What does this fold into?
Amino acid sequence: MSVMESKIKRAEARLREDPYEGHQMIRTLVNRQVMSKKYDDSIALLYSGAKTLFELEQSGSAGDLSIYLMDVFMKASSSVSMDNKAKALALLGSFPSEEGSKKQYVKKLLEWTNCTGPQGDRDVHASVGIMFAKWGDPVSAERHLVLGNEKCPAFYAQMLFNWAHASKHEDPALFIGRAVLKYLLVGSPADALQCLTKFMQLFERSGQSPDETFTIDGIRIPAYNSYPYLNYLHLLVLAAYRKDKETYISLLQKYPKKPEWESALAKVEDVYFGIRPVNPQPNILSNLMSSLFTNPSGGGNAIDLE
Amino acid sequence: MSQVQIVRSFIEELSKNSRKHPDRISVDKINGSALSTAIGLPETPFPKEEFKNEEKKVHIIAKTVRPPVISASAEVSTSSTILELKESLAPQLNVAVTSLRLLHKGKPLVNSKFLADYFDPEATEVSLQMFLLQSS
It folds into this structure.
């Protein structure tokens, strides 16, 4: 057994005897290793210590060591290698929803992996998205699922289906529409369609048989008389794929825009159909009077709520 | 006009044109502000309990291919990473985690991936091929 392996074994034993003491011991050891630039040793110790603390349900201390591990990765300019990523994702999966440090860990994980590409690492985004869903934060999950890897559309569909299924009265299209619009906004009609198809499979399996099915582009499209906006979402994706402005305008006549989707649809219209919002001509006198006698209000454009 | 009739007529119209947009645009072209576009939330609270109950365990049996045949086994969650699986197997074999290579149906398993990425989620037992690398 190497010197480092025996240090790790001793640290694990100390953690099991006294988690607080063991945590402090590891921090002290790692501080010394980092000062001596022995980054590999400190990474091994932090990873092992954090894992053991999570097993012992000491998530506060485990979170602290996990965050320290991210700091060491960045300090050491550690590459996002398969092994380092594996350690980072294993720890991510160990955070319980009630642990307060989880978001800080996620922030550092994303910071570390941002160097891998313009939008970071797809596997990391997938894992972060899945964990946010497990922690009960679907809005945070969505941002990462749309940037995640190939397993995300199916997971996203399942997440939204579970949510829709919990609703007694809301239109299921309100749920899956979130994914369709978000995927269209990031330029991925393929993922929008994959997610929608998976959602519809789950919907059908729950006892909601379509009134008729159609086929286009080799894809099965279920049509429902009772759920018009589920139909609309399929047609929207197909029109977006074709950049078919005329068909989209016809769609608008049959399916008035849902208010929840206004901002997103405005951007989809611009990107796929070349339809830009009409800016009203400025009334200079009106604006001047308004600025003299009232406080200026917030802008009228879509505001980022996330 | 019924919904089915409306859909039929739109599908007929759309079939006349071919696709013009790629399946996905390249990542560097993604508009960052698009990710933050607000979409109105449903009223129904999100049911987080559904995901907590979906953790599944699978029994893994790993065996060396060449004689002498050595085996190890572990019961792990499908949401575990391959690295975590190796960490469960390595102590049984008295080897370092870095010496273990695992394959499933001839395909090497990557440490940063999850068991659920490789196996049928309904599987309760999975057999793997194992290679023990000589440590230098």
About this structure: The first strand of chain B starts at residue 57 and ends at 64. The two ends of chain B are 75 Å apart (CA to CA).
